[in-house]
Amino acid sequence: MGVLKRFEQRLEGLVNGTFAKVFKSEVQPVEIAGALQRECDNNASIWNRDRTVVPNDFIVELSAPDYERLSPYSGQLGDELSGMVRDYAKQQRYTFMGPIKVNLQKAEDLDTGLYRVRSRTLAGSESQNPQARGPAAAPQQRPGGYGYPPQPAGAPPMPSAPPPGSRPAPRAGGPAVGAQPYGQTRRWIEINGTRHQISRPTLVLGRSTDADVRIDDPGVSRRHCEIRVGTPSTIQDLGSTNGIVVDGQHTTRATLRDGSRIVVGSTTIVYRQAEG
């Protein structure tokens, strides 16, 4: 059983209580869990043949409406997400320099349904000492600032972590989830009123928890189709059982335009794009 599936099952045990309110937010906990996995993969640093270090200190930035819905449960959710990261790291043979922490923060620049994950690597003494986050601290090992990989001893200094309340720049190598550089084309899909930002070259849709966007529909295959960003963007069927319908036409591959309607199973997806 995959790590995301186990995480989802643990959350299901809380749904019947007050924690069920979390699932009414635009951003779903399993989406955040998948983003944390990708954050570990994207920031893994090989220190030697037997040790690959990944971030252990995470901040999940949410839009104001999503933050208001999730913040009352941030303690429980943070613990569950930390456990998921620990399980995933064990599976991938990753190691940490300190305790795993996942915190939620409000970001005024994000729209409902969008989120951004930032991470850094902190040694155990730093993560337990709030003063170690400030510029005057002298940690035993150099941490990576949010969005930067950890640095071995002797490496050139890294940019310092952003002060509280500031907005950090996106990680080098690509925009964060939900963030788009000004002047570039923004792309997203809308499913049942929920917006999912497209911030990577490909976006897999399906019923599996491993899909980039999960669609809970029995007529949808585990990995049903894939949107490929480009000029123009396209959608490709991934050998699904029921196929895809784009703008009323059954197809295996189609070009997407702003407003294209995609039907998978009994679910309608609207593709959107606009200049940033």
TrEMBL record:
Pfam families, A to Z: FHA (PF00498), FhaA_N (PF12401)
List the InterPro entries hit by this protein, alphabetically.
Cell_Proc_Reg/RNA_Proc, FHA_dom, FhaA_N, FhaA_N_sf, SMAD_FHA_dom_sf
Where in this protein does the record put region Disordered?
122-182
Q: Which residues form the FHA domain?
A: 203-251
| Comp. bias (Pro residues) | 149-167
Spell out the Gene3D superfamilies in the cross-references.
2.60.200.20, FhaA, phosphopeptide-binding domain (DUF3662)
List the protein's name: Antibiotic biosynthesis regulator FhaA
Q: Origin organism of this chain? A: Streptomyces cuspidosporus
Q: Which gene encodes it?
A: fhaA
